[in-house]
Amino acid sequence: MTAPVEGFSKLSKEAKIRWIASRYTTHPEATEALLKRYWNEDSKLQQLHDEFIENTITNFYLPLGVAPNFLINGKLYAIPMAIEESSVVAAASKAAKFWLERGGFKAEILGTEKIGQVHFLYQGNPELLKSFISYLIPVMKQDASSITANMEKRGGGIIGIELRDKTADIPNYYQLHCRFETRDAMGANFINSCLEQFSASLLREAQNYDGLIKDQGDIEVLMSILSNYTPNCRVRAEVSCPVKKLDEESGLSGDTFARKLVQAVSIADNEPYRAVTHNKGIMNGIDAVVLATGNDFRAVEAGVHAYAARSGQYRSLTRAEIQGGQFKFTLEIPLALGTVGGLTSLHPLVKLSLEILQHPSAEELMKIVAVAGLAQNFGALRSLVTVGIQQGHMKMHLLNILNQMGASKAEKEAMVNYFKTHTVSHNEVVKALEAHRSN
Ligand code: MEV
User: Fold this and answer.
1) How does residue 1 score in pLDDT terms, banded at 50, 70 and 90?
2) Is 169 a catalytic residue?
3) In the chain, what is the straight-line distance between the N-terminal and C-terminal CA atoms, in Å?
4) Does residue 2 sit within a domain?
5) Residue 27: active-site member
6) pLDDT at residue 394, rounded to an integer
7) Which of 40, 139, 364, 384 is most buried when burial is the number of CB atoms within 10 A of its CB?
8) 104 and 121 together in one domain
9) Is the CB of residue 85 below 6 angstroms from any atom belonging to ligand 1?
10) Active-site residue 215, yes or no?
């Protein structure tokens, strides 16, 4: 077993690579060379990436693709997507085109409020605590004014602070439940800084508030942190068209196609095993745009899945219905995104992605991201209820298989041509390439 290492973060990047390669890989020199090959020649650009995190040893590439032809609220977008899964960008583009010919997507913001909480314990009289917190709220706001000043200039800030008694769940447990508006910033740093200031004010003022601590026992702050569950920072995306306009290339009538889509959504709404996969397909679109625009996809994932389970059962995030001959397909999700701060002005490809999107506000980005999720779900369901998912997926995966087999450019061309009329599977590709090579 390898011995633990002391002070690894203080080693130079070269030394870190050597240490990792020599201890954990079978071909240390090849590994070292491989890791360096992924460095950027531009040393400033490389340093920027090195400094995003600790212990950087190289860059980890993902493709950045673009899905064009997204008509959203009457404006055309090409949506940048960072993702490794073969068929996602192709499916998004196809869904965009389908809906472009049927009036495009609509999207609206349902709220932009973010949440943060100070979690604390207090053993004393709840009524006394209530009156203390009423006294404290303006003090906390005043104490946080140097943090909030800039945000207020941009139209954001603290919306409200309330005391929540959670002692029925956990003995002595209370929260300061705080609501914020963070405009074009995702707001994590702003919210956490405010919360830590609130907690300092709470502890300081509690010492002097009449009888609160003296007779009743101390206040203990456990933690101050934003919540990634933002049900009131929510967006809705929608497509609709007359059922008769849904006639589908696979030959299904609009009626049958619409009915199958509605049933597929209904299954996902009622059956958690299906709901998870259904929503995963939505997240294929959402995460790819969230990542390309430098946003926190883990926060988005956590919040969206909590929202999907808000009824107590994990359900579909999309809804589909047929009413009066009209098919309607919607997605409603919480999304806390930023277009300023964080990586947005640092990572060159994030900057480029935001430029491709014509420098959206956070609200506009919420709409774009929700539309990408809805389009992805439509694309997946369309395949699932008609030709199945593997046809499109394997077509896109063909190049991965050929690359695994070291196919040349000419061989790839020949194989792509051959598989236009044959079904792709790993076995069939191996057989076809071998046959091609022996000709
Ligand atoms: C694959 O990444 C996503 C799908 O499984 C989604 C779905 O089943 O709806 C195709």
Assistant:
1) low
2) no
3) 50
4) no
5) no
6) 81
7) 364
8) no
9) yes
10) no
